[in-house]
Amino acid sequence: MVSLLLLKRVSQTEIELDVVLTDVSFKLSSDRALFTDPIILAELGVSGIRQVQLPRTRGQVAQTLTVSAINIRTNITAGDRPSTITLDLSLRESSVVWLSRLRQARHYRLSFLNPVDQFSALLEGQVQITPVRDTVRIFQSTIPRPFTFSTAEDLVHLDLSFLDGPPQVLISQLPVDSLSLTEIEKSYEPDRSAFRPMSTIVQGTLYFEALSGKPYTLRSGEELRLRVRDGVIRSLALADDHIVLKFNGTVERMSTGVGENRRNLMPSWLEYLSVRQGLALLWGSVLYLFGLVYGLLRWWGISR
């Protein structure tokens, strides 16, 4: 019985994850605004769109640009008040989101599959607008004005450049039902090309909530695979060159390592019972040992 409890794993367990990453992807479990608070940017690049609606301002008429990509950059030096780009984005249920670090500090790429038909960004001050294969334009407004982007494809990319400062919380309290801490790396060999998953973990800790918060330290580059039943991204913050993720949820499968070295991290029933039903397990063990000793004594008496 003890061997069975040790080898048998629980079917699901609650975990808490506190990890530093270079890339992360997840799937939304409901229609939600992606950002809880306004995200203020220094530069925004958008691709996978079909048109952009420019608002009417003093001295400028409303326009609609038919473009597949556009870049918007703030002009920090224009006037006494810095110009800003504030992104507002809502996504559908089952939308898949990828966030990855780019080469420059405080530059990230946010990609999403199955987007809404439109999303917007509020622009204030003086900004430089560069549509793909079009002339550079200068937009200026003393109050926030919405630029509306109409999506053309299932996959949209946003290149985000953040202002200098402390780490910025990008997402908080976002319900998800899928979480991936790996990226697909393509390697080229003489006769073929191969794709393989690579861990994006820099460092972190995994906590087993069902085992009274027992910690498991994640090493740099350690591959952690999760099958999430439901969960919440409590916080996702961006620093100069990494992503800080805090996640809490219920998983149905959890493993680390690759190939023959893969290890199942789901708690065994013996671990679970020792924490949750420690007294019952103790008395069960005592009764089992008592029965075993009693049976041996009876056998000894009969055999004599």
Explain this structure to me?
By secondary structure, the protein is mainly beta. The protein has a domain at about 35-170. The chain is built from 3 helices and 22 strands. A hairpin with a 5-residue loop joins strand 18 and strand 19. It is elongated. The two termini are about 30 Å apart.
Radius of gyration: 27 Å
Largest sheet: 20 strands, antiparallel
Number of strands: 22
**SSE pattern, N- to C-terminal:** HEEEEEEEEEEEEEEEEEEEEEEHH
Index terms:
20-stranded antiparallel sheet; 22 strands; two-stranded antiparallel sheet; 13% helix; elongated; 3 helices; 304 residues; mainly beta
List the helices and strands and how they pair.
Layout: H1 2-7, E1 13-21, E2 23-28, E3 32-33, E4 39-47, E5 49-54, E6 63-65, E7 69-74, E8 84-88, E9 90-101, E10 107-115, E11 118-131, E12 137-151, E13 155-162, E14 168-171, E15 174-180, E16 182-188, E17 193-199, E18 201-208, E19 214-218, E20 224-238, E21 243-256, E22 263-264, H2 269-276, H3 278-303
Helix pairs in contact: 2-3
Short summary:
By secondary structure, the chain is mainly β.
